[in-house]
Write a structure and sequence with these properties.
Elements: H1 3-13, H2 26-29, E1 33-34, H3 36-43, E2 49-53, H4 59-64, E3 70-75, H5 78-90, E4 96-100, E5 114-120, H6 129-139, E6 140-151, H7 156-163, H8 186-195, E7 198-204, E8 207-208, H9 210-213, H10 217-220, E9 223-230
Parallel strand pairs: 2-3, 2-5, 3-4, 5-6
Antiparallel strand pairs: 1-8, 6-9, 7-9
Length: 231
């Protein structure tokens, strides 16, 4: 896919009013919902340099800013990068920077320069997830941390939908499944990570009543969050 097509798609998606609205039931569950950014930020270990792929409005890096000397956010959408930079500046954060880049063409950082990398809702939305895992291994320092989040096709409601011949929808955003391209299960993601030089140390998920559902995340959570160590 030409990079300008991908960029235009996500710029349009995140333009004001472009994304589909939230479910009317969401306010009822908000008090018992744990957002994925909160889960990921709690899992991150402190270091010198943090990289966040698909950094969006910058909220994850802003949460983690006190733990790092330098934080870098990368996103394909110009509108998201501008919003993230504005959010960081409004909080007086001078250790956080953002850049527009298409990670299907690589990560624009030197090898072994990152202490912690996060990729939330990225792997399923790009052209080549395995190439990105290889790039993440390249930019991370040996022994350092990757926290990666994907949507879980083996989530119980999605299994039931498939059983009845319905295609599960992962995203409420516009476009074909909000641009979602690849499906993952815990075993499939684990195999891909191990193959590309990462050891998975912990599995979890987020969402409504996440602490209860996390006793069996591969079946009961709509997403999978893997905490990994770069070998």
């Amino acid at each position: 896919m030409a990079p300008e097509i991908q960029r235009d798609f996500y710029n349009s998606l995140y333009a004001a009013g472009a994304a589909a609205g939230a479910s009317p039931l969401n306010p009822l569950f908000s008090r018992v919902e744990v957002h994925r950014s909160a889960v990921v930020s709690a899992l991150v270990t402190a270091g010198t340099h943090m990289l966040d792929l698909g950094s969006g409005d910058g909220s994850l890096l802003i949460r983690c800013a006190p733990q790092f000397a330098r934080l870098t956010g990368i996103d394909i959408a110009d509108v998201r990068v501008r919003a993230a930079a504005k959010n960081a500046a409004s909080r007086g954060l001078d250790n956080v920077s953002f850049a527009v880049a298409n990670v299907d063409h690589g990560i624009p950082l030197c090898a072994a320069t990152v202490d912690v990398a996060t990729a939330v809702a990225v792997l399923g939305f790009i052209f080549d997830p395995l190439a990105l895992l290889k790039e993440l291994h390249r930019v991370l320092k040996p022994g350092r941390q990757l926290v990666i989040e994907v949507l879980n096709i083996a989530y119980l409601p999605r299994r039931i939908a498939l059983l009845f011949g319905r295609l599960p929808r992962h995203s409420t955003a516009d476009g074909w499944d909000g641009g979602h391209l690849h499906n993952f299960t815990r075993s499939a993601l684990s195999q891909a990570l191990e193959l590309h030089g990462f050891h998975v140390e912990h599995w979890t998920g987020s969402g409504v009543l996440a602490p209860l559902r996390n006793w069996w995340p591969s079946l009961l959570t709509g997403n999978l969050i893997a905490v990994c160590r770069r070998l």
